[in-house]
Amino acid sequence: MAIPAAWTAFALVDSKNQENSFEINIPYALSYLAYEEFSGEVPGMKTLQKEYEEKYGEVNYIPPVKPTFWSFRIMVGAGMLMIFTSFLGLLLNFYKKLESSQLYLKGMVWLISFPFIANSAGWIMTEIGRQPWTVFGLMTTSASVSPNVSKASLLFSFLSFTAIYTVLAALLVYLFVREIKKGSEHSAHEDKDVTVDPFDQGAYL
Question: What are the tens digits of pLDDT across the range 102-118?
Fold first, then answer.
């Protein structure tokens, strides 16, 4: 009989001994995530390791557990926080309290970084969690290394992209700050200055 699997919400992972020294589990949750029902057994990493050794050969098929475990929870936590604050903003706007909620508005400034955090954590989980595979069951990452790409080429590409994105980020911050300093009254004044001649046919094109 299949044993329903619990989802570990929090754990102190001991990678050396391959166990959790402390964990908080939600019963049946992992079975539901895997099968969309509260039943069904989910094999563990050690079980999968033995199956993959028999099928693909004796290689370590368990990815780095800590980065995979925590990057997933950072991604989901950031996403849930953004959803919650979005609904809170809609609620405040419904009751006409959004503009006067200084704590909420100040918090939203810090929340600007959360989409980037969630996106980065998701990619970290994906890239680390798929190890040692590039294409599951067909090609490992060790077999995917291109012999024609030198260390110098990689370093040049990395530094070039870093420099370009640093300049773009600085330009973005500069433009944001410049527009914010103008204030909302500046935008309202510009809108009032725009006039349209009703007899100018080009105004309707």
Answer: 999 999 999 999 999 99
